[in-house]
Write a structure and sequence with these properties.
Length: 370
């Protein structure tokens, strides 16, 4: 009687085959006899995990390394991030920052891209966190701040979620690895609470000096200075504003790119006058960028130095905007919406609640407790 031929069925995973519903390892080194070994399961995901373990024992992990490493998760993660950007949940600048964090992880985790996910557990991820932050030793790997460490932790947790979603790792293994990825405590930023902002008269003098220097250079950086001061937006948001984002009929300016998602602000009188001036002097269409300059840090720094004013950055103009609003009596929830915050004012109270010393003293003089 003729023996029936065995019906082996290939899978999408190299070296993983199925026979009569049971998964097998089949591996044939060059010029050697083929190895066959039952994985004792009919569940595909369990078989894939056991396959990696068997190949690791045989020293043949590279055969499936790309399917079970951190590197294999990066492209699906990027596709997920792109979807989040399309939905408006994250901005391109956030995605760029996360890519930087990937580079940081590679510097503190040897062979991270090719490291087998099957070996990731709580102990291993915690050891990486210790290596990522803390005090750097001479000649040792770089160390990163608690804030950047928390960012890297977020990236790894997102990658693990992708591994769970695509069933590259079991839910139990993912949770085990996540237990070692806890956020570290960040010291409160007292610098922003104690910074010395210029007085209104100093801001006026700074503006005039900056315009003078820009005129000598033949640039239009003064428009960017006014725009940041009159809108309170971040420098990245300012650079993304198009002419079509000015809704005069509604009295609104739309910021399409922002840290916490798109938002709008009113067209304050000074802001509207600035926009009118820009559009009158610089012709352009609806799809053109509104501002002709992306940065003015160099001339801002030199102007501050010339006038004896403490160094200011682009972001410090946002602080001046927020402080001026608070001093004018704008309520915190309204100011939060003008700044693009989504927390109803919590960040404003913690960060932008610092007032100029002279205003604080003037308000204190009006207080009576009896």
């Amino acid at each position: 009687m003729k023996r029936e031929k065995q019906a082996w069925r290939a899978t999408k995973i190299p070296n993983l085959f199925q026979l009569d519903g049971v998964y097998y390892l089949r591996f044939k080194p060059q010029s050697q006899k083929q190895t066959r070994k039952s994985l004792h399961t009919s569940d595909f995901h369990v078989a894939r995990q056991r396959l990696r373990g068997e190949l690791l024992k045989m020293g043949k992990a590279p055969a499936v390394a790309s399917a079970g490493t951190w590197s294999a998760l990066i492209e699906p993660w990027r596709q997920w991030l792109d979807g989040e950007r399309t939905l408006g949940h994250v901005t391109q600048s956030t995605i760029d920052y996360k890519e930087e964090l990937i580079a940081n992880i590679c510097k503190t985790w040897p062979n991270w891209r090719t490291f087998p996910l099957s070996r990731c557990d709580e102990k291993l991820t915690r050891e990486w966190m210790v290596a990522h932050c803390g005090k750097r030793t001479p000649g040792g790997p770089p160390k990163y701040s608690p804030t950047r460490t928390n960012g890297a932790v977020t990236v790894l947790r997102e990658l693990l979620d992708i591994a769970k979603r695509d069933k590259v790792m079991t839910p139990e293994d993912v949770e085990d690895a996540k237990r070692g990825l806890k956020f570290v405590e960040v010291d409160y930023d007292y610098k922003r609470m104690t910074m010395q902002l210029p007085e209104p008269a100093q801001v006026v003098a700074l503006r005039l000096e900056l315009y003078r220097r820009c005129k000598v250079r033949g640039t239009l950086g003064g428009y960017l200075f006014d725009f940041l001061l009159f809108s309170g937006c971040r420098i990245d948001s300012a650079g993304s504003v198009l002419r079509k984002d000015v809704y005069r009929s509604k009295g609104l300016l739309y910021f399409r790119q922002a840290k916490y998602g798109a938002y709008t602000i009113p067209l304050f009188p000074e802001l509207l006058a600035l926009i009118d001036k820009i559009e009158k002097e610089i012709p352009g269409g609806p799809q053109d960028r509104l501002l002709p300059t992306k940065s003015l840090q160099r001339v801002l720094t030199s102007s501050c130095l010339h006038l004896g004013i403490n160094h200011l950055s682009h972001h410090d103009l946002r602080h001046i905007f927020a402080t001026r609003c608070i001093e004018a009596g704008v309520d915190i929830p309204t100011l939060a919406s003008w700044l693009g915050h989504k927390d109803g004012g919590r960040t404003c109270m913690m960060i932008y609640g610092h007032l100029r010393q002279t205003h604080s003293q003037a308000q204190a003089a009006t207080m009576k407790f009896l």
